[in-house]
What we know:
Blueprint: E1 3-4, H1 27-65, H2 72-90, H3 94-100, H4 116-142, H5 149-163, H6 165-174, H7 179-203, H8 208-212, H9 216-231, H10 237-276, H11 281-296, H12 299-302, H13 311-351, H14 356-376, H15 386-393, H16 399-418, H17 423-431, H18 436-443, H19 452-465, E2 469-470, H20 477-483, H21 490-497, H22 506-510, H23 523-536, H24 543-548, H25 552-563, H26 567-574, H27 579-585, H28 598-616, H29 620-631, H30 636-645, H31 651-664, H32 668-675, H33 678-689, H34 695-708, H35 713-723, H36 729-733, H37 740-750, H38 755-760, H39 764-768, H40 771-778, H41 785-801, H42 803-811, H43 818-830, H44 842-856, H45 861-866, H46 869-878, E3 886-890, E4 893-897, H47 903-914
Antiparallel strand pairs: 1-2, 3-4
Helix pairs in contact: 1-2, 1-13, 1-14, 2-11, 4-6, 4-7, 4-9, 4-10, 5-10, 11-13, 13-14, 14-16, 15-16, 16-19, 18-19, 19-25, 25-28, 26-29, 28-31, 31-34, 33-34, 33-35, 34-37, 37-41, 40-41, 41-42, 41-44, 43-44, 43-46, 44-47, 46-47
Amino acid sequence: MAAVTVPMPAANSEASPTPASGDLPWTAAEKRLNSFVRAVALVERMGNGLGTLAFTWATVVVLGGFSTDLRQDFWYATAIVFLEAFRVFSRESRSDDQLLFKTTGGVRLKRVVLGSGVLYYLNAVIVVVCFSNALVIITNHYFPLGPNKTLALAALLALVSKLEFSTYIEGLSSSGRNIFATVFFRCIPIVALVLLAVGIVYLGDLKPANALLPLMPLFASWIVYNLLVLSLQNHEQKFVLVTKMLCTVIFPLWVAISLVVAFKTLGLLILLSTALLGNIQIPVAIARIVLSSMRLFKVNGHHKASSNEHLIPALKIFYIMVFLQGISYIMACMLETAFSFWFRRLLAKGCGLGGEPEMKSINLYYEHAYDKCMQDGILSQEDLKLVRFAVDSLSSNSRAQNLAAVRILYSLLKKTEITRNSTGLLVSEVTTSKNSVGTLISMLGWTEPEDEGIRLFAAEVIAKMAGNLRIVGIPGTVQMVSSLLDNDARASEVCINMEVPGYLSPSRIQALPVQVTGNNVLSTPKKFLQCMKNLISIPKEDEEFWMAKDSFPSQALEILEKLAHDLDNCAEISRATGLFAKIIGFMSYTIDTTNIPGTQKQLWTTSSLKLIIKLASTNGEIGMVLRQKISEQPFLLSNLAEILEDSCSNQYQLELVMGILAKLAVDMEARREIGSFQVFVTMLVNAFVGRDQPPSTRKVAGEALSMLSMGNARNFSAILEAIGPNFIDLKDMLMYEEYIYVTASLLQNVCALSQEKLSQLGSSKHLSSFLPVVFTKMMNRELKGKKLEALISLASQICKVFPQCFAQELESSQYNGLADIIQNLVATLNSSKKPSLEYPRMRRVIVEMTICILESCPRYATIFREKGMMEALSMVERTPSKVEKYRVFSGHVGVVTEGGLPLLTLVARAKELVASATPSP
C-alpha cells in the first residue's frame, strides 16, 4: 500500500470540511440519489415479495389443493407460475437479470440530435417497422391469430425489444469509416421500405396506393433529413446550430406521430420497442396484470358450482397478489424512468462531470448502488459512496468500469481543488484501499489504443495525488511515469475517440465557431433553446485546460515534479534509467513536435524546467546524486542556452533557467562547464544589472553569478568583463535589502582576483568606494544571518586586495562608527557558538575581519579587548565544528568546501593581534 501524507488543520483553525461532514460539493446530491435508489428498490422488492408469496400460494394452495376444480384457472395459474419461476431463476445470474428483468434497464430513452443521432433513430425505427409488419403480414396470411391477436402483439413487442435491432443499427453507424459504409448505411431505410411495400402488395392483398400510403411519412422524413444534411454544409454556423436544435425536437415527434397514425397499435408497440424498452420487465409485468385481471373478475361465475368453499377466496388472493406484483414492477420502472435521470444529473453536476460520456460513469454508480440495495437490503448499514465505488472499480476486469473509476476520481479531485476543500482527506480515502494507487500507476503502462482514455485519466488522477504520495512501496512507479514521456502528439487524437470529456485537439479548437452577438432573426429562438438546454445540461470541462494538457508528457512532468517533494521519492527518481535524458529533451524547441501548437511546446519547456530545478534543489546526498545525473546530460547546457537566447521565452522560463544554473553551480566541474558558455555569463550579467528587470529575476541571476564566480578565476574574469562600466551600479544594489546577499556574495568572490586584474578591468577604484556602504550596513543591528555574513566577508576581502584603501577608510574623518562595528562583531560571534548550516562561515569571516582591521590599524586592538573580542575568540577556539569546513550546504551535506586557512589558525592570529599593546587612537 502506498504511503500518503495528509495535511492536518491547525488546532486553532476552523475545521476543514471532510467527506463525512457532508460539506463536499457532491455529498448532498449523492445522498439524494442513494435515497431515491432505496425507494425504487423498496418498490421492486415489494413486487419480488408479492411474487414469491404468489408463487408459493399457487404451488402449495391453488395447484396443490384445488387442482381438480380449477378448470381454465389451472392454465392461467400455471402460466403465471412459470413466469415467476423464469424471473426467480434469472435473478441467480446478474447478467441474465439485467438482460431480462432489471428495473433500472426496463426503460431507456434515446437522446437524438441531428447528425448520426437522427440517422440512427430513423434507420432503427424504419427497420423495426419493416420487420414487425413483415411478421404481422406473414402470421395473418399463413397463421391467423384470431381472438388472441392482442397477446400475439405483446409477444411481438417483447421479441422485437430483445432482438436489439437498434443496437445493430447504432453499431453500424459508428463503424462507418469509408464512403461505401456511409452509402450502405444511408440506403438501409429505402431498401427496407421497398421490401415492406412489396410484401404488403403481394401478401396483404392491398392495392399499391393503399400499401404505400402508410409508408409515405417515413419515406418523406428520410428524404427531408438527407436534404437538410446536404444543404446545411454551406450555411453559416449559427443557422446550422439553430436548425439542428429545432430538428432535434421535430424529427422524433414526426416519426412517433407517423407510426401511430399509419400502424395504430402496432406502430405504438414498435415505437416503444425501438426507443423505450430495454428488457422484458414491463411486458412481463403487463402480462401479469392482464392475466390476473382477466380471471380475477370471473372467478365467481366460473366456480359457483364448486363444492369447495375455499376455492374462490384462494384464487382471488392469488390473482390479487399477481396483479399487485405487476403494478409494483411498473411503478418501479416508471418511478425510475421519471426521476432517476434528474438525480443522476444532479450528482454529475455536483461532481463536475461534464458531457454524455461522464454520465456513463454516474450511470454505473447508479447501477452499483441499486444492485447493493437489492442484494443487501434497503436497510443495510453499508454506506453507498461514489469514492468507494470508484476505488473498487479500479480493480474490475471491465474497461468500462476502469474508465468510469478514473473519470470519477479525477473529477472529484479537481472539484475539491476548485472549492478549496480538503483534497488530502479525499486522497487518504483513495490510498487506504488496498492496491488502489498501485492499480492506478499500473494503468500508466496500458498502451493499447482502446486503453488510452483510461491511461489519460489515470495520469491525471495520479498528478492530483502525487503531492501526497510516497512511492517507495510501489515498485516500477517511476518507470511507468517515464513511459508517458514516450508518447507523441498522436495520443491526443486517440483520446478523442475514447470520449475524453471536453477534450479538443488543437485542430478542433481552431475550428470552434466564433460566437456572434446581435439582434438578428435567429437570436430569440436560439436564446430560448439555449436556456432550455442549460436547465438540463452538464457543465463542460474547461477546453483550455485540455488544450494545455493534451499530451501524456505534460502529465508525466507534473507527476514527477509533485513526487519530488519527498526525499525517498527523489531517490527512486534518481535510479530511473534514461529518465533525465527524456526530461531534458522536452526543453528543446527543435524536437519533433509536428501538429503541436506553440502553447504546447511552451508548456513542455516550462514543465521540464520546473521539474529540473525541483530535482536540482533537493537537499542531502540524494540531491548531490540528482545534480550529478542532471549535469552529466550532454544536451542540458545547450538546451538551456537555447532557451535564454530564444526571443519567445517568457520571463518565468528565464528565471527557471537561471535558477537551474545556480543550483548546478555548487559543483566545481559544473561551474567550469557552465562558465564555458559565454551566453550564460552575458545573459546572467544583463539580467542582474539591468534596471528594467523584475526583482525576482535580478535576485536569481545574482545567485547564479555568485555561485559561478566561487573559486573559478576564469569565470571571475568573464563576469567582470561582462559587467564592464556597470560595475559601479553594484554599489547601488547594496542599498536594497533584497539584493544585499547576492551582490555582496558576488563581490567577495570577485575580490579573489589579483589587484592587477582588477586594475586592468578598471574596477579597483570602484571597489574601494563600496566600503562606506558596507560599513553602514554592518552597523545595522537588525541585519543578521547570511546577509551579514556576506557583508563582513566582502569587507575583509576588500581589505586583502586593497589594504591601503581599507586603512584610509578606517582613518577617514567621515566615518566614526568603528566601535559600533566591533561591538556588533563581538555580539554576533558570541551568539554563534553553534555554526548554522545556512551561513556556516559566520565565525570565520568575523575572525578574518578582525585580522584585517588590526593588521591595517593595530591601534584598534584596545577597542577589541574592551568589547570582549578575546573571550569570544577563546570560545571559538574551544568549540570547533566540522560545519565550518564547508562554504555551502545542501540540507545537512556540505557541497562546497572551504579553501582558506584552518579556522583555528586564524583564531590564533587574531588573538595575537588583539593582545598586542598598541594604544588605541
